[in-house]
Design brief:
two-stranded parallel ribbon, single chain, mainly alpha, 343 residues, 8 strands, globular, 6% strand, 10 helices
Length: 343
Amino acid sequence: MTTAPVSTARRFHRPLLFTTAAMTVLALFCLCAMAIDDRQLLGESVWLKPLKFAFAFALYTGTLTWLLAFPHRGQRLTWWMGAIFAATAVVDVGFIVTQAARGTFSHFSNEDDAWNNIGQMVFASGVPGLFAANLVIALALSWQRVTDRPTSRAIHLGLALAVAGMALGYLMGFTGKQQATDAYGNPIPLAAGHTVISGSDQPVLRDGVDTMPITHWSTNGGDLRIPHFLGLHGIQLLIVLAVVLAKLAPRIPWLRRERARADLVWVLALGYAGLLGVSAWQALRGQPLLDPDAATATALGVVAAVTAAGIGLVYRVHGRAAADPVVLSAGARRPASTAPMSR
């Protein structure tokens, strides 16, 4: 793996930084709007969808801002991809906010309305743009070590999970038509949705019929937003994991080696990918998250067992090395690895 050229300066990506700030402000605005606007779509506030998107994009563009500030090869390419991602995110979320203010749907709407027609064309070009920009960034950084080994591995694997999560979002477009109503009771045809119902007898409306509190994920069928969410935010979880392992290293001898922490990140990322795959499989079979059948429970058990075995193997390899007096004395002469957030 290539190590990025060393530089003392770190420049934050301004378009992504601006987008992060704008999405944060939007999330606060949506929270306030929910308190004073009682209009609803599919049984939830019209402002809940823009709130979710604002929060998700603030989190993801903030992560990309931090990530692209590390010195790396191909910075011109990743800068432009980051700029495309930021601009597309602002335009796409802008349409979602506009439709929320109008009391109608943004995603999958077949409403015969000039503004909706323009918005759907924006989505048709914007969503692939977000996916492509993220994919290029992931590929450009996949062979580079931009910081310490465990955090670099978390970044590489997290970006791969994000690409998978974005790709899974496309499956929502094949769930079938629905008939819904806007915030004023007007009928709105939807080309697709996020809920999968098994069987040939499909209800007229699947989304928003029976949902979990807070997340509003379906309890009546499989919800494709779940694997979509898990994929997109795996990178934040893995980066936090790398930081936590670095903080634990002074107290746990076998974690003091960068390679041990990196291997542990790899194993846990593999387990997370397994969880992502099982959740997608469960949703595609029209099965609610909280009502898994025997096959889903078995698959989750296998993922947990493989992950536990992997953790045990990492401990067996690096724990023995840490207990070896020769290795310990050799390690004592080497400087401690730099914390991931300090480079």
